[in-house]
Design brief:
Shape: globular
Structural class: alpha/beta
Number of strands: 5
Helix content: 25-40%
Number of helices: 3
Radius of gyration: 11 Å
Strand content: 25-35%
Largest sheet: 5 strands, mixed
């Protein structure tokens, strides 16, 4: 499992494009990452959880800090 923080809409959009190219889909409805803008829910506090099943989840930073305290949250940077 990997946790990536996206504190801007631009970073979120960049990450979603990358994840879509890798074949990831959203947990909630299996839509493509670029089809849904989940950044607006938590904005600067948005964290994306990646795993080996290519199903991605989103939540706010505090949630993952509480539920997954041993997993580092990495600040995503546009490549």
């Amino acid at each position: 499992m990997q946790l990536l923080a996206v504190d801007t809409q631009e970073k979120y959009d960049s990450l979603m494009g990358h994840l879509e190219n890798e074949g990831n889909v959203w947990f909630e409805d299996e839509s493509k990452p670029t089809e849904v803008n989940n950044w607006t829910e938590y904005k600067e506090e948005t964290v994306i959880m990646l795993n080996t099943t290519l199903i991605i989840h989103h939540q706010n930073r505090a949630y993952f800090e509480n539920v997954c305290p041993d997993v580092e949250i990495v600040d995503y940077e546009i490549r």
